[in-house]
Amino acid sequence: MITSPVSIFLLVLVIILLGPVVFRRLRIPPVVGMIIAGIAVGPYGFGLLERDASFRIFGEVGILYIMFQAAVEIDMFHLRQQYRRGVVFGLLSFTIPLIGGLLGSRWAFGVGWDTALLIASMYASHTLVSYPVVSRFGLQNTRGAVIAVCGTIVAVMLALLCLAAVVQTKLTGVFEVSAMMQLLLMTAIYCAVVGIIFPWVTRKFFLHNSDPVAQYIFILALVFIASLLAQIIGLEAILGAFYAGLVLNKMIPARSALMKNIRFLGDSIFIPYFLIGVGMLINVGVIFRGWDVLWVVLNMTVVALSTKWIAAFAAQRIFLLDRTERLLMFGLSGGKAAATIAATMIGYKYGMLSEDFMNGAVVMILICCIVASVVTERAAKRLRIRLTQRDLDQEQVGETEYARQIVSVSNPITADGLARVALFMRSRLNHNPMRVLFVRTGDDRATRAMGREAQQIVANAAEAMEVEVKQKERFDINVANAMGNYMVEKEATDLIIGMHRKASIVDTFFGSLIEQIIQKTNRMIIISRSFLPVDTVTRICVVVPQKAEFETGFHLWVTRVTTLAANIEAVITFVAFAETVDYIRTAMHEDGIEVGVKWELLDSYDDFITKTAYVAPEDLLVIIGARKGSISAAPELDQLPVYLQRNFSSHNLMMIYPRQF
Hints:
10 strands; Rossmann fold; Na+/H+ antiporter like fold
């Protein structure tokens, strides 16, 4: 048996590195492969490794990580759409296995009602062991996946309550309703405290620290704090990790360096370690020790899988889903690990389960994990092919409309904010490079150094999100001319530039440079000022002028704004005239962008003040401007800069001037 820490870690790394390659050739899902590898090298296999403290620690971290990642990867818009279905599926996925377990255990094993309820709670709970497959195929926001993840929490929560009731009755001889009510009260307090404090602390931390590594450590610490607090009040740590993911969801956009780090560490270390550790628990040889253990394994496996399949089938019929979505839901809800292992150990500890039951339950966990992973892999492949074909069709139709962005920078302080705005306004199908422009008017070394540093900051942010970057430095005595000519030269659709800051009392709100750019180019200009990172914004308010729908670039700015809201998972409120609202809805429908939307109707420009009064400094206020002489231009808009300066000087602000003929 290997005892050297270096040798142990090296062997684990070799398994993580070569395992997926070998098992894919054998047509075995990598998740199953990791578990089989754990069986092979563990104490019940070749005995190369002992399940020591490192595997127990990393195993606990791994299951917490799976639950956290499942919650943080869900788009809250899709979760709001599907959470009712998720609750129903969770109830089905809990009730049907519970009833089947009670009746099956009484008939097959002849045990008492308390032991039957304990075994039934093992069937009713499940673990998202096969979720890494869903994440790998990018299906975390599909309907079946969201319903299954939401249903998991409902089923696990109810199963753990059943387990707690069984243990309490075993210890005290009576079931106390007051103890359950106290647990529910503590749970409500816990949810309120974590739900309020975590987002506030995270926003403050992100405001002063944009380093993805530091942000990752901070987020991971919050996950473990939430898990520890859950354990203190009597809940399972996995529930705390999942809830932390939901609370922090809006702070971690899907397309960000932070999310990239979360997926990388989980997929490369924590989750494989957990799966290998699960395999090391399993002793396949117990099946051959006698008929009793084999009967326990067969009965438990058949009941566990068949009842979960019935629950998925019932949900499919109720929600009118297709066969692939049903298989995905069954695959995600069929796996068992953390809660089931806990119930097994507790039952054995208090003498409610014999050694045969404990061994049978562990083998049942292995079979359920294998079946769940295989089913999830097959369903995910079918669904991915379908969605990829849809994306290719959309790409062929709208390829010329993808943003060709130019980000103009000169100040390293504002460069990161401009980069985030540009990146989150891009479609994930957009393969055009993002161009970073620095225009200098002289040879001052300090100015050139600042400009190049600002360019590098934007390039680093883009490369972290796997977006190609091309940097350009130009010399021109007229900065506005340089920007306009570069846009024409590169056929750019968007120019993203920082908002001017007034230097004197006679200075204008926009400054002379931006005013010249607006006059010299007919391309879309996005002027941004971000006091907070745009990816921490949870609400966007977009004010639209009258007759904006008649401008050439109307659809284009609607696409950019809704893409931004979708990527940072913010709710967007359009403040617009009634006749314009229908055109915005049509544009969103044609784009197929799914985002939470609210509407505020304007009767006149005087309503602008009251309709935007709720906008907080941590929100983003977007004003759709109008060039002089354009169709949507109006005399009332001339007073807009004065109002913005007076009332929104400390807010995140964006001005968009649409493309013109």
